[in-house]
Amino acid sequence: MTGIVYKSTGSYYTVKTDDGQVYECRIKGKFRIKGIKSTNPISVGDIVDFELDNSTDEEIGIINNIHDRKNYIVRKSVNLSKQTHIIASNIDLVFLLITINNPPTTTSFIDRFLVTAEAYGIEAVLVFNKIDTYDEAMLDEQLFLQYIYSQIGYKCLRVSAQEKNGLETLKELMTNKVSMFSGHSGVGKSTLVNSLEPSLHLKTKTISEQSMQGQHTTTFAEMYDLSFGAKIIDTPGIKGFGIVDMEKEEISGYFPEFFKLKDKCKFNNCLHKEEPKCAIKEALEKDEISWTRYNSYLKILEGDEDHYRTDIYNDDRIASDETRNK
Fold it and tell me: How far apart are CA 151 and CA 205, in angstroms?
């Protein structure tokens, strides 16, 4: 039989077939030693072949083949720095949920996520959530970020899951597609899914007042069928986004505004740092490229692996000002 993995707990996989039947499956040990370096050899969204194991009273499926993935999104495993973690696969659209101050989403986190989406050929949409909670300063911050990313060409949405603002536009984008919601813990992923499909009743938690950090409510990635003809993958909140498997020379190619100018640099292998006649740096001086984006690029280039876990939004702005004033 063939089906799509709807949930992965690391040891068991919930697989749904085309006729709507759901089976609990496990994998043969060989998948763990086939050169797959990720902590999870099978991810939500994978298409798999399986057969039923009749040797026990339980109806358990044994996965014996994984179909080739059209794409997947991966990050560095936080606890095992040499391992990677595949968040989900075979995705049509990825929505990155962003909040300004509850909890703060950093520009370096946004940019690392977008670089990964670009590298794996997945269209990314930025969703600014909780707009009903913004004061004037937070609104200015949100509109500033929206301007930066919409200028580059990224679609940006402003939504409020609580007040149900912007949900119809979101539904239109999601219809007939497999979408993934991602972002920090506490940005409102599960609440937003509940707003789109109230019958799901996904668990939600409030933000910790003391730390302004979200609390994990989604433990494992899971796919849901929605009533308006969409599939959504809800993912656990992630603190950081470590970039994997990228050569220094290719990183700027995943910044669309850099890629447009690369051919105008004097040197083909320009890293856009100290090289003379660099088109990216010239555009930067003219404010045609965002300083926060350039700052994120430098951090990725320099492999600042601790930074992606510890950064807070204000640090990015301070660093951008320092870069501008050099």
Answer: 34
